[in-house]
TrEMBL record:
Organism per entry: Pararhodobacter zhoushanensis
Family designation: Belongs to the DnaG primase family.
Protein name per Swiss-Prot or TrEMBL: DNA primase
Domains (record comment): Contains an N-terminal zinc-binding domain, a central core domain that contains the primase activity, and a C-terminal DnaB-binding domain.
Region called Disordered, residue ranges: 432-459
Subunit-structure text: Monomer. Interacts with DnaB.
Gene3D superfamilies: 3.40.1360.10, DNA primase, catalytic core, N-terminal domain, Zinc finger, CHC2-type domain
Gene assigned in the entry: dnaG
């Protein structure tokens, strides 16, 4: 459902956030200044005694200085009451006496239909629970006894049993007034292709209800009792209620507990989650019969910024962890990643807790390793690096990993981590693999920064070039400043350009700070206006706008046409992207001079020189003025290297190999 412009602002203005939050906390009256709308309390999101949770009633936001929880009244309702965004809007609107906008009749019909299907699912939950008490469930009860599930746990998780009969649930539901079509649509029964009577999907299985974040029964997972069953675990099919790739087992309770009883733990199956919660690890979830999906990852990150993936301590568990890590690699960002806990001896969490108790599980969780460490171990495991070729293959694999990280600053940190690990791995090697040797890597971040030996004197072909001069980035910094100033002046363009803004690796710290403000604003609804953004940026933006080339830019004039501003902005992004791509390739080629002495390098240099010449003719979408002296200098450097064949001279100086 879409909301009309201004509705959320009106809602926030009508309701005091202090009143909303005050129902869940006890204010520290000594620290609070109620007259100024300044409130403090112990945080409701994590256990503490000090009042580190701050609410600014006038500005309408809260922030915890302990766990960094933050948001407005709507966010608070979502986090504390497991409400969706629209549900929190409706709750706040009722409190404010503000009528909700009229809903789309089609959406209302879909919601009504989902509500009726939830009622059918709840009837099935009660039926299966009763069946667990019957004589046909004796073997199922014995199995649960062997697994150590107490009566309290069976009650807590609403565990039931589906008798091994073809239509027992179907007859029960139809006799209670449920239409056959609704039973089939809920995924409880299936209709054969020959047009026969519907039959129960779950037969001869222990039943685990699956509930959404609001606690509504939406699906089932069934564990087969027969050894020769087609599938040991069977989940409900996709229905209007259930998308297994977008839900998690125990999602609602885990969301309420995350950060209070420890980190979020992602286990493999239902029994692992039940064992973890029983041992005190209440914020535990599991995917639903499939490998973790991208949508589930995003769900997990909404529950916790750095969840722990608990892996069975065998080869299959490690492979599963690597699949999750590779899925997460393009999605991670500063403060949003994964840690991995590898359980000992091929055990799963249920096994470990039974054998060693909660303390053993806590010890494993406390030793969880960051994702970078898992990826590094996977790349070196089973490999011997006794030749330059094998070491080069490792470098190639690491560069491929780095290239998949979309956050440029995080990529640099991963690069540094891999570099440190590489130094340790090759610490006992002689020659060029000693720590501190300048590695001839490309610009994916790997090989840059600390640990690199000081560069020698420029080669003859590079003297006077922009790479040797040390100020080659001045023009790029000016263009960065112009891009930022235009986006602050025209925030409506953020929606169109936020993907390019994310990719841009700004050179200056103050530019990166402004980039962060813009990226956060791009995710807000409604989007802040130019004055609001300027207030957030403060003097940093004022200093940037005062720069001469920015202050006179035609895109910032009040009468500038939106299409003109958009075209100019797109061109500036493209120029930076093209220029840096060319500069990176030249850096790679320059580095390759140290180790390649054949026609391959001649070809690569010639190709780069030709493309640089095309850039000069505008083939990359840039005018000659755009690249200016930088392009001329780069082209001259390439041509000089081609003409002089400096690598051959270097070979003669070094003597035969």
């Amino acid at each position: 459902m879409s909301l009309p412009p201004g509705f959320l602002d009106e809602l926030r203005n009508r309701v005091s956030i202090a009143q909303v939050v005050g129902r869940a906390v006890t204010w520290d009256l000594r620290k609070s200044n109620q007259g100024k709308g300044d409130f403090w309390a112990p945080c409701p999101f994590h256990h503490e005694k000090n009042a580190s949770f701050h609410v600014d009633d006038r500005k309408g936001f809260y922030y915890c200085f302990g766990c960094q929880a933050k948001g407005d009244a709507l966010t608070f309702l979502q986090e504390t009451q497991n409400l969706s965004f629209m549900e929190s809007v409706e709750a706040l609107a009722r409190e404010a006496g503000l009528p909700m906008p009229e809903r789309d009749p089609g959406a209302q019909a879909r919601d009504d239909k989902r509500g009726s299907l939830v009622e059918v699912m709840e009837k099935a939950v009660r039926f299966y629970r009763m069946q667990l008490m019957g004589s046909q469930a004796a073997e199922a009860r014995a199995y649960l006894d062997r697994r150590g599930l107490s009566e309290a746990q069976r009650e807590r998780w609403e565990i039931g049993f589906a008798p091994d009969q073809r239509q027992v649930l179907f007859h029960h539901l139809t006799q209670s007034g449920v239409k056959p079509e609704a039973i089939i649509e809920a995924g409880l029964c299936a209709k054969p292709g020959d047009g026969g009577a519907p039959f129960d999907r779950f037969r001869g299985r222990i039943m685990f209800p699956i509930r959404d974040a609001r606690g509504r029964a939406i699906a089932f997972g069934g564990r087969a009792m027969a050894e020769n069953a087609r599938a040991k675990y069977l989940n409900s099919p996709e229905t209007p209620l259930f998308d297994k790739g977008r839900n998690l087992f125990n999602m609602g309770p885990a969301r309420a507990a995350a950060g209070k009883t420890g980190p979020l733990i992602v286990a493999e199956g239902y029994m692992d989650v039940i064992a973890l919660v029983g041992a005190g690890f209440e914020s535990a979830v599991a995917p639903l019969g499939t490998a973790v999906t991208e949508d589930q990852l995003r769900l997990i990150w909404r529950l916790h910024d750095e969840p722990i993936i608990a892996l069975d301590g065998d080869a299959a568990g490690l492979r599963a962890g690597l699949r999750v890590a590779n899925l997460a690699l393009p999605l991670i960002s500063a403060g949003q990643s994964l840690r991995f806990a590898l359980l000992p001896g091929g055990q799963d969490p249920d096994d470990l807790i039974k054998s060693g108790g909660p303390g053993a599980m806590k010890a494993v969780i406390d030793k969880a390793v960051p994702m970078a460490k898992l990826l590094w171990e996977a790349e070196i495991q089973g490999h011997i690096f006794d030749s330059p070729e094998r070491r080069a293959a490792l470098d190639q694999r690491l560069r491929a990993l780095l290239a998949r990280i979309t956050d440029a600053h995080l990529r640099e940190h991963y690069s540094e981590e891999f570099r440190q690990q590489r130094r340790t791995l090759f610490a006992d090697k002689a020659g060029p693999f000693q720590p501190g040797f300048r590695q001839p890597y490309g610009s994916g971040g790997y090989g840059k920064g600390k640990g690199k030996a000081p560069p020698g004197l420029p080669l003859p072909g590079t003297r006077g070039s922009v790479l040797a001069g040390g100020n080659e980035g001045a023009d790029e910094e000016l263009r960065e400043a112009l891009i930022l100033a235009v986006l602050f002046a025209h925030p409506a363009l953020l929606v169109e350009f936020d993907d390019r803004l994310v990719e841009l690796d700004f050179r200056r710290d103050e530019h990166r700070a402004l980039q962060t403000i813009l990226l956060r604003a791009a995710q807000e609804e409604p989007q802040p206006d130019a004055d609001t953004l300027a207030a957030r940026a403060g003097t940093t933006l004022s200093d940037l706008r005062a720069q001469p080339h920015v202050s006179i830019a035609p895109m910032l004039r009040s009468q500038a046409e939106p299409d003109f501003v958009r075209r100019c902005l797109a061109e500036d992004f493209q120029i930076l992207r093209s220029r840096r791509a060319l500069r990176r390739e030249l850096a790679e080629l320059t580095a390759d001079v140290d180790r390649i002495a054949d026609e391959t390098l001649t070809y690569r240099l010639g190709d780069a020189s030709a493309r640089m010449d095309r850039a000069g003719r505008g083939d990359l979408g840039e005018s000659a003025t755009d690249l200016g002296e930088d392009r001329a200098s780069l082209s001259a450097q390439l041509q000089s290297m081609l003409d002089s064949q400096i690598w051959l001279k270097k070979k003669r100086r070094d003597g035969p190999t």
